[in-house]
């Protein structure tokens, strides 16, 4: 089974408060995107990074010399389609991994790959919700408390049969944040595997502080 990975890395990271593109923010001495790509390469995946058009593409290339870097489109859907065209035709399955998740553990990635090898069309790593979840109305008043026992938070890499991912992005419109959601809309079953708290997404300054601590403690 030949594996490729797509790493969308076009986020601007306003909530991080950095002037540089989010993918180029450093954890330790290494950029977020370089951490993410390293994890995909360890999994044996030929990796394509999608950078924002006309924005720091050369900078991204310098940080991920072993990956292919392509300009993205107007939204995530267009960017994933652009990356798919750069992947060799004989690739069987594709992982899609957020550049802002620098520390996805190797064993978690392998769970996704193993499920794909066993015949799943789409696989996502998930973790249970720790907090109580409430639904509120437009006035910020609680409407109901939701049973969280069947709820899961979704992480990446998400894995797909290549033809399934390509079709999902080709037939949908508008921006998306979750590739598996497009596949679900096609009626394809999405299998879940155990995720890992270390694969959290760096979005805020607090997340970045936690990632720095994780890096220093060697828990990536």
CATH class: Alpha Beta
Ends: how far apart? 27 Å
* Rg calc: 17 Å
Q: Which stretches are low in confidence, meaning pLDDT under 50 for 5 or more residues running?
A: none
Give me the secondary-structure category. Answer: alpha/beta
CATH A-level architecture: Alpha-Beta Complex
Count of β-strands: 12
Shape: globular
**SSE order in H/E notation?**
EEEHEHEHEHEEEEEHHEH
Give the DSSP E fraction (strand runs of 2 or more residues): 15-25%
> What percent of residues adopt helix (DSSP H or I)?
25-40%
Describe this structure in words.
- It is a single chain.
- The model has no long low-confidence stretch (mean pLDDT 91).
- The protein has one domain: Spore Coat Polysaccharide Biosynthesis Protein SpsA, Chain A (Alpha-Beta Complex).
- Strands 1, 4, 5, 6, 7, 10, 11 and 12 form an eight-stranded mixed beta sheet that branches. Strands 2-3 form a two-stranded antiparallel sheet.
- It has helices at 32-42, 57-63, 76-85, 106-117, 162-171, 179-185, 205-216; strands at residues 3-8, 26-27, 30-31, 46-51, 68-71, 93-96, 122-128, 133-136, 142-146, 152-154, 158-161, 191-194.
- It has seven helices and twelve strands.
């Amino acid at each position: 089974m030949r594996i490729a990975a797509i790493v969308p890395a076009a986020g601007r990271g306003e909530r991080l408060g950095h002037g540089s593109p989010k993918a180029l923010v450093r954890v330790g001495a290494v950029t977020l995107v370089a951490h993410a790509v390293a994890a995909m390469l360890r999994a044996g995946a030929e990796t394509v990074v999608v950078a924002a058009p006309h924005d720091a593409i050369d900078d991204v290339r310098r940080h991920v010399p072993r990956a292919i870097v392509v300009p993205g489109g107007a939204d995530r859907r267009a960017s994933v389609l652009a990356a798919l065209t750069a992947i060799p035709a004989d690739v069987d399955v594709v992982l899609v991994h957020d550049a802002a998740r620098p520390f996805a553990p190797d064993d978690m990635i392998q769970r996704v790959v193993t499920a794909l090898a066993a015949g799943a069309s789409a696989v996502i790593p998930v973790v249970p919700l720790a907090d109580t979840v409430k639904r509120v109305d437009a006035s910020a008043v609680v409407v109901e408390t939701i049973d969280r026992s069947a709820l899961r938070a979704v992480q990446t890499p998400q894995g797909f049969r290549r033809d399934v991912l390509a079709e999902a992005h080709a037939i949908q419109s508008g921006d998306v944040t979750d590739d598996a959601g497009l596949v679900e809309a096609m009626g394809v079953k999405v299998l879940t595997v155990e995720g890992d708290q270390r694969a959290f997404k760096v979005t805020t300054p607090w997340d970045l502080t936690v990632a720095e601590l994780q890096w220093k403690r060697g828990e990536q």
